[in-house]
Amino acid sequence: MTARYDIDALRARLGDTRGREYWRSLEALAETPEFKEFLHREFPANASEWLDPAGRRTFLKLMGASLALAGVTACTRQPAEALVPYVRQPEELVPGKPLFYATAMPMSGAGMGLLVESHEGRPTKIEGNPDHPASRGATDLFAQASILGLYDPDRSQVVTNLGVVRPFSAFASAVQAVVSTQQETQGAGLRILSETVASPTLAAQIGEFLLRFPRARWVQWEPVGRHNAREGSRLAFGEYVDSQYALEKATVILSLDADFLCTGAAGVRNARAFASRRRAAGERARTNRLYAVECTPANTGTRADHRLSLRPSQVEAFVRAVAVQLGVAGVAAPELPEAAKTWVAPLVKDLQASRGQSLVIAGDGQPPVVHALAHAMNDLLGNVGATVVYTETAEARPMNQVAGVQELVADMTAGAVECLLILGGNPVYTAPADLDFAAALEQVPFRAHLSLYEDETSALCHWHIPETHYLETWSDVRGDEGTAAIVQPLIAPLYGGRSAHEVVSALGERGERPAYELVREYWSKVTGLSMQAPAPAPAAPPSGREIAPTGAAESAPPPQSQAAPSVGAGAAPAPPPIAPAPRPPLSPFDREWRRWLHNGVIPNTAFAPRAVTLQANFAAAPATGGAAGSGLEVVFRPDPTVYDGRFANNAWLQETPKSLTKLTWDNAALVSPATAVRLALASGDLVELRQGSRSIRIPIWLAPGQPADTLTLHLGYGRTRAGRAGTGTGFNVNPLRTAAGLDMLAGVELVKTGETYPLASTQDHWSLEGRNLVRVATLSEYDEDPEFARKLEHQPITDITMYGDFKYEGYAWGMAIDQNVCTGCNACVVACQAENNVPVVGKSQVLNGREMHWLRVDRYYTGDLENPDTYHQPMPCQQCEAAPCEVVCPVSATTHSSEGLNDMVYNRCVGTRYCSNNCPYKVRRFNFLLYQDWNTPTLWLQRNPDVTVRSRGVMEKCTYCVQRINHARVAAKLEDRGIRDGDVLTACQAACPTEAIVFGNINDPDSRVSRLKANPLNYALLAELNSRPRTTYLAIVRNPNAELEAGRAADESEGRR
Amino acid sequence: MAVPQKPVEGQLLEGGVPAGRAAPAVIAPGHTFESVTDKISGIVLTKRTPIGWFIGFAVAFAFLMLLNLTIGHLLMTGIGIWGNNVPVGWAFDIINFVWWIGIGHAGTLISAILLLFRQQWRTSINRFAEAMTLFAVACAAMFPLLHTGRPWLAAYWLLPYPNTMGLWPQFRSPLIWDVFAVTTYFTVSLLFWFTGLVPDLATLRDRAQSRAAKVIFGVLSLGWRGSARHWQNYEVAYLLLAGISTPLVLSVHSVVSFDFAVSVLPGWHATIFPPYFVAGAIYSGFAMVMTLAVPLRKFYGLEDFITMRHIHNMTKVMLVTGMIVAYGYGQEAFFAWYSANPYEGYMMLNRMTGPYAPLYWSLIAINAGMIQLFWFRRVRDNVVLLFILSLFVNVGMWLERFIIIVTSLHRDFLPSSWDIYQPTRWDFAMFTGTIGLFLSLFFLFIRFLPAIAIFEMRTIVPEAKLQPEQRG
Question: Which of A563, B62, B278, B423 has the highest CB neighbour count under 10 A?
């Protein structure tokens, strides 16, 4: 301090004092403010603050205000919406704890029982219903993806008349008016066109309508229907019956172009039954043997021990030859191609050796006579009643749909149809091309279309009525073997909409009635149970009404929920008893009804076996496909992911790689490599296919295993009014599909256009490159050396770490995947996508190799290009114990949990992608762009609240469904026990029809996964890298017929030369 | 004249070099202290900027703006604008990073190691080689940040700072080593460069005519008066910095090579990487110095200072390091076969015959074949040819990084995940944009700072060998 002091003034001050005035410096003497401050500050800083009485208060005030204001800034902008809390919280609803409701998904004339996970009223995930025979806890990929269909923002949302928005009541009165004019002609001008109906209630409703209008007609049209199977059964037995296969009892199976493991209503059930004789952990002596004859490579063929690739025109001849050898009467032996000749004798021998335990299955795409021959062969082999039983059909009214739709079109063209009501389906797009359904439709004066989407058919109809999704409406449906299930809604209709029940009821004299009432009324009538409750206690309000979901199902009681599905759930101790509240007495019907809803099945509704007698001389008719003629042959198949086009706007299914071609977002004409070489074609070449006056343009895709000179065309693409995901993707093949050639077509001419078309495939590489990734042995090789799989590669030395291995004390999660039974059906892929909020990226991103699936199914071929062995290898994160990804992350965003999970911390991830580069399995997925849809409100509802929704710039990957582990952990802790084996089912595992994926605690030696890992077939992929994956695979054991295998080996060595 | 003078140790210097087959002189005959100072400071202090400078700068600046545009788009949209995918998680981003870092190596080598080895010929090229290093590292340093998915977080999460999350970076990750290596390298290079500039800035300050130049150069020259004490401190500091920089020449690119060598990927997981990368870095760095030196001496008439001696020496360094790199290629191929590892074997086969084979063979043609031309004196004497060849070397080294990164990633262990990588226009925009940044900075540097160390040049003119009393 260099202040200048007034020395005189200081002297004066000193002079004023009495006694001794102590001063330390001139500053002290001058009492400068600086000095005072200095003195003050000699005390501890805080102490001095307290001297000021206002300081503490000011401090608190400021801090309080800043805290409050800080809170304000931290708020995200909230939408201005009214919140309606529960006035009375539903009893079972605990926020954050999902409820499961049983329902069923109707599709193509059969239903699959489901349990649907619901979070606070939002259905988010589909699981199979373990009690439903078509599901047994598993599902197919369509059921998994249907949840996205519910929330599809492109679903139609309003009733329209000629494009003008109208209320439903306007439609109801309009249709009533038209119907009433038909009274005097007994409905001669009325037609109902529906998809195959498997709902007993709807069938009864339409039946009632037809009673009222006897001359009205009901036509069903299913583009991927079981037309051939129906006509085949009529040919063989003179009546319509369904064949129910008991594959678990079959030792030798012959598939005649049947993809029975993956398609059709019984696919899931068949796959599980087939797998039961095939598992790595199963009894080797019981291993079954599958012979597959195929016109196009399908998933079933990939599991076959012997696969014969035949042109469509050759199959019938082959079947006849086998039938002749087996001794089916009245069949002439035709000429056979060379490859098939060597097959017949060993095959017949094998079939005959397993009388009563063999099975012949004809595919839906094969002509009726093949079905009839299959029935005859099963009969001759003593399989009827053992491996195959006949029942009545799951569809309520089997009919010859092709003839029906032909007749309808003829009537429409003739002007005989006054009113056409189309209940679901998209006939303008799917009807056989030669009928020209669209032109005929224009002749109808009143045409209305009930549909989920405003599609090609809606565009040509006067009225369009939005349909409710099956998760929004009450209905019922039969499983393929007859078991009926009530379809109960999980949510009030998102976009309004009506179900077919309601629309049909609007035609009736009583006017529109809610589906809930209709379904209950029907079942009350069928079961004979009274809906009349015993006299209720006077003051008790009717149960359920207050907490009924709003919307269409106004009077519906709360859906009945179930506990989360798990294997061990049956053993769960009952919850502590709570004194029940007084309840109004239930009617006899309601008592049963609640049980049906809770269990998801109506007991004792499965069909009883039916005795049928084989007709004589059914096979006398000439072989239909025999005259192949010149040109190429074409096989039409439902698309493996978008089916007949109904799922065209389902982005999950669009992006699911089709299990054999690995194509996404497109269909293509599949050709065999040899044919491609002959015609100088390459994948992606755009060609024109011509037959007569009809032609389509479609790109080529090379498919190993495809028969020579045969093209496979998948239906369901080239939609023009599907929605933002489906419109304009792929190529419409329906213009080539005629009523006579719904499944196969001969004499097709291929013309090259010279153009190419980019096809987005997720797996460009076919070959294993000689690497021991999929390990296979025949049964005899396995018997010689059960440990062959481990010997194929160097085994790592485990304890060479300097630090010592981490000891996993509690749980150690692991997974074993049985490649013996994986059919590559893709249910797991879609299940994973639904469970884990995995985004869809679109075709351009897939082309760039940026698909986001956490779980992919790798497909590899070995052997002959024209008829290769095909293997599926599901590839989730391997959860390596010594994970290469973890050490290279600069910010520790991927770390190891104490239970052995390779955790991904999204919040910490900065996105260097080093982890992905260093992952030998390449299972990590990166959000290169903002893939997640943050803007579509309905899609927000679908998301699983237990899983983070990832944003741009973040790496993500399979977590072994850690959220499910944590749910199980909470449940176990509440019950003061450990997590039991089977408490945690990962999404992929739960969906898997064949239970190929097993997950559990490998610290528990008795867990299923531990037992599988102890199996000699168990091996770790790329174990030589010492990454110690927790996911391991079970090597494949094939069960070939020695006689045919010898021929195959000879062929192969010849091919090599 | 108030030009600061460096005390001279004449005995150690050898200004005149015998003629004939021996190497040309490091400075053309006839130069004096004044002529050197006039010539070099004149480039900066002239009022008449050559029109060529404006044209060159405009082009470079246009590409710099392209870089800005690309970065803006990148930050708004995400790195999906590039062609990277799974499995090729790294592509142009890391290729460019390694390429630029490698180029930066020549500057440090010239200024530090050659200084310690008392290689006089470094004198006329060290200043702009150091500047080149700085600018190259600046270009390089952008990529590790911008290649991340969330650069706004990566900007500080990769640094070890105390935080409420109680989290440190993961020190086992080579990317963290990179952060330390590159920041250290940049800091030391900057200090080294600036320290070396101080005496020259004082010269410019003293010679500047305009007020602004006087003030700016005055501030930057940190009060340098050229006293013996200043020179004493300067020499110590410069030598110390040279000592610190020397290990960095070897360590930085070794650490960069660990990004690859530490991983499990065939084609990356190789012990040869550190020396092979360092050699490659020096090789490409000298090529870039050559690329810059040839036009510089031509357009600014600096042939007297950057003589054929420099050109020859740089060519020889390129020949040696290029041969080491070629040896590295040989070793990679040899071990792919010798290890009998099927994945390594396939990796090599894929490089030679796979979809990127043309790039691989171009790389071999340049880095193993073309450089053999440097054996010939006639080639070394042909400046235009050397300029073209040095551009090829730059391309070759870029291809080397492409081959290492992309071909190793695009086909690794499981054939199911194999895919192809195709760069997008934004990949090229980003790459050419960094070249624009580099050249813009370089144009500014030669315009506003002495591109050749004036005072160091003065030590090698014949005059410096005379005792003070001998001078006229």
Answer: B278
Check B416 against A860: CB less than 8 A apart: yes
Sequential DSSP letters for B141-204: HHHHHHTSS-HHHHHHHTS----TT-----TTSHHHHHHHHHHHHHHHHHHHHHHHHHHHHHHH
Task: Tell me the chain A residues in contact with residue B423 when contact means C-beta distances shorter than 8 Å.
Answer: none
Tell the CATH topology of A95-226+394-530+553-564+587-609.
Answer: Rossmann fold (3.40.50)
Coil/strand/helix, residue A696: strand
Least Cα separation, residue A800 to chain B (angstroms) = 17
- Cβ <8 Å between B80 and A918: no
CATH 2.40.40.20 placement within chain A: 632-761
Q: Furthest-apart CA pair in chain B: how many Å? A: 81
Q: For residues A829 and A652, give the distance between their C-alpha atoms in angstroms, rounded to a whole number.
A: 9
The fold for domain A242-391 equals Dimethylsulfoxide Reductase; domain 2 (3.40.228)
What burial class does residue A769 get, using C-beta atoms within 10 Å of its C-beta: 0-12 exposed, 13-18 middle, 19+ buried?
middle
CATH 3.40.50.740 location in chain A: 95-226+394-530+553-564+587-609
Residues of chain A with CATH 3.40.228.10: 242-391
**DSSP 3-state of A373:** helix
B327: Cα separation from own chain's centroid = 22
Kindly list the residues from chain B whose CB atom is less than 8 angstroms away from the CB atom of residue A858. 414, 416
Closest chain A CA to residue B173? A888
Model's pTM, two decimal places?
0.86
Dist CA A360 CA A380 (whole Å): 11
Residues 6 or more apart whose Cβ sits within 8 Å of residue A746 = A312, A313, A625, A627, A628, A629, A631, A633, A634
DSSP states along A792-837: TSPPPPSS--SS-PPP--S--EEEEEETTT-----HHHHHHHHHTT
Quick one: pLDDT at residue A182? Answer: 86
Buried b / exposed e along B341-378 (16+ C-beta atoms within 10 A): eebbbbbbebbeebebeebbebbbebbbebbebbeeee
Choice among A445-459, A485-499, B104-118, B354-368 with the minimum mean pLDDT: B104-118
Stretch among A530-544, A797-811, B363-377, B438-452 having the lowest mean pLDDT: A530-544
> Which of B172, B412, B413 minimises the CB distance to A887?
B172
- CATH topology for A632-761 is Barwin-like endoglucanases (2.40.40)
What would the pLDDT profile of A487-505 be if each residue is shown by its tens digit?
999 998 988 889 999 999 9
pLDDT digits (tens, 9 = 90+) for A1010-1050: 999 999 999 999 988 888 899 999 999 999 988 887 666 55
Q: Do B79 and A856 touch (CB under 8 A)?
A: no
Give residue A1056's pLDDT: 40
Distance CA A892, CA A476 (A): 52
Domain(s) labelled CATH 3.30.70.20 in chain A stretch across 776-1038
| Residue among A485, A507, A489 at smallest CA distance from A497 | A489
Strand partners, A756: A685
Q: Kindly provide the ipTM of the predicted complex, given to two decimals.
A: 0.90
Phi-psi sector, A256: left (phi>0), alpha (psi -120 to 50), beta: beta
Joined together, the tokens standing for residue A128 give 């199979």
Cβ–Cβ of A916/B264 closer than 8 Å?
no
CATH topology classification for A776-1038: Alpha-Beta Plaits (3.30.70)
What single DSSP character describes residue A97? S
Contact A848 B147 (CB under 8 A): no
Beta-sheet pairing, A669-671 with A419-423: unpaired
Instruction: Tell me if B87 and A909 make a contact (CB, 8 A cut-off).
Output: no
Best of A910, A923, A926 to disrupt the B interface by mutation (most B CBs within 10 Å)? Answer: A910
Chosen from B177, B414, B425, B426 to mutate, greatest number of chain A CBs within 10 A: B414
Write down the residue that tokens 């004082």 correspond to: B202
